[in-house]
What does this fold into?
Amino acid sequence: MLFISALAIGMITGLQNATTEVSTTDSDVASTTEDMGLLEPTKLPSPASDSVNVTIHERPSMWDVYLHHCPKWRPVNHIFFQVANIFFLLSFLAPHTPSGLIWLRVALILGCAFSGMWAWSVECYLDAVLWNSAFIVINFVYFAVQFYLLRPIKFHKDIEEVYAALFQPLRVSRRQFRRVLQCMRSVRHLKSHDLYAHEKVTKVDSLSLVLSGKLVVSQNQRALHIVFPHHFLDSPEWFGVSTDEYFQVSIMAMEESRVLVWHRDKLKLSIMSDGFLQAVFDHILGRDVVHKLMQVSETMAVSNGHLPNCYEEGEDKPMLVVKKAGDGPGITALLNRQLQGAAFVLYNCARLDTIIRTYNERVTEGTYPPLPDFQHTDFSLLTQEEEWCLVFHYALGLPAALRSAAARPHLLCAFLSSMVKLISQYYRKTRVLTEPRKHLLPVMFARLHLLTILNENLKICLRVLNIKSVSQM
It folds into this structure.
């Protein structure tokens, strides 16, 4: 717009100058005569019959002013002028990236520098020198700020390992992670048998991540589970527990340990305006809770409240000690409520795999015909209430569940739990692999397609939670 305005002003000025030159031709002649001291003789009016000679001057058009304004071009400007414009051209080619901004500022600084040298040493234009000097200062300030922002951000060795293990895979930048660290309260150093939290005494006002060492969680002097490096001590309390409540468990260091402690309210307030960081923390903490739940299916140990011998020898394996029902809120109650459901999910995954594998084996033996295509299967034969509930809520409901789990991962656990409960009820009530009779095959094909879809959905959910499915129990 500025360029168009300047062009319009120049065109109007050119037209005014051309008109002035045409209208003032006669007046210039008269004034020249008077300046020479000559008097014009008085002209008598001529008779009406006399002929009058009139000369008509053609008014130049707008385009003539610009097309014929430079009948002869001047020689090419100095090399400083050419180099300056080359750098200006390069500044226009800078990409829209952080490094591209550095490129832009450097090119502008060099272009203004050569333009100023041209104005100083060749044309001797003081105003051009001053303007280019001001441009150099402004661009140098922006260059310095951008260069400072691009400096490498480094963390302490333990913090660097946390970033690489938890946050970098989720594409959290170092600048965003440094913003998270600004909410850090402290890094606590614990010696062996030092208490980090005391049952019903310490408030749940922090978020704690183990940097090194191992800590044991206990209640009423009974060991519950062990927390290893890069795992949170109070991840379940992140969801729905206020800072006015107290720990329902005690946490003690088994060896010399270091714990990164965030001020929880300050951290939540800091990431509240950043939906990405909020989703990252919900995902990491939700995954931490899910891992605590799912590991019991592989390495569950019941030891009457005492640590197993393998941990006294220093073997690093996940362990969870089962307690009776009735525990208070927090991690203990959450683990106890979900303990059976965690193994039940994997059990039903293996159950579906077994059904599909058995059918394929019988197809190979020739007992059953091959499973027809999805388009050639009559799903109207599925008449049971559980079957259509499985279709609408769990076969077709997976995309909605995954979208909800992006912000709240624990919802995916609830989706899995309710799905496997209904699958188990359906399995006990319905016989899927029937006799290979012609009138029974269409129903069996529809049910096999349904179970295949449910099996795939189940495995997708487990992969999202970074949990390996099982094919047999």
User: Anything to note?
Assistant: The CA atoms of residues 105 and 139 lie 6 Å apart. Residues 331-365 form the longest helix (35 residues). The beta strands are 184-190, 195-197, 206-212, 215-219, 222-227, 250-253, 257-263.
